[in-house]
Amino acid sequence: MSKKISAAIQLLPIGENENFYSTIDKAIGLIKNVTSDYVVCPFETVVNCSWEELFEIQKQIGLLLENNNVKGIINMKILQSNIDNYRIKLEEYCKK
Which of 37, 45, 55, 87 is most buried, taking the most CB atoms under 10 A from its CB? Predict the structure, then answer.
């Protein structure tokens, strides 16, 4: 099994008004389908998953934008560590 990583995923749909939150909600739904270890924060969703799962999430969000003709930016911040304390750091990060 692949080592777990933590990633903060930000999606910014560009040029949308009424469907802005709908697109973000659909992206969060796609994340839920790939991993159950996630936390929705005000400006991003943080996931703990394998590299393979992260690439699948990015692919699915990209297809969501493409299939719905939505322009957008997907930004990811990735943390990989050789210590298994990502859950502690995630909880500290999201409390702020």
Answer: 45
Taking alpha carbons only, the member of 51, 24, 46 closest to residue 91 is: 46
Which pair of structure tokens corresponds to residue 24? 């973000």
Domains and CATH numbers, the chain: 5-95 (3.30.70.930)
- For residue 1, the model assigns a pLDDT of 47
Residues 6+ apart with CB under 8 A from 38: 31, 32, 45, 46, 47, 48
User: 0.70 cut: is pTM over it?
Assistant: yes
Cα 32 to chain centroid, rounded: 9
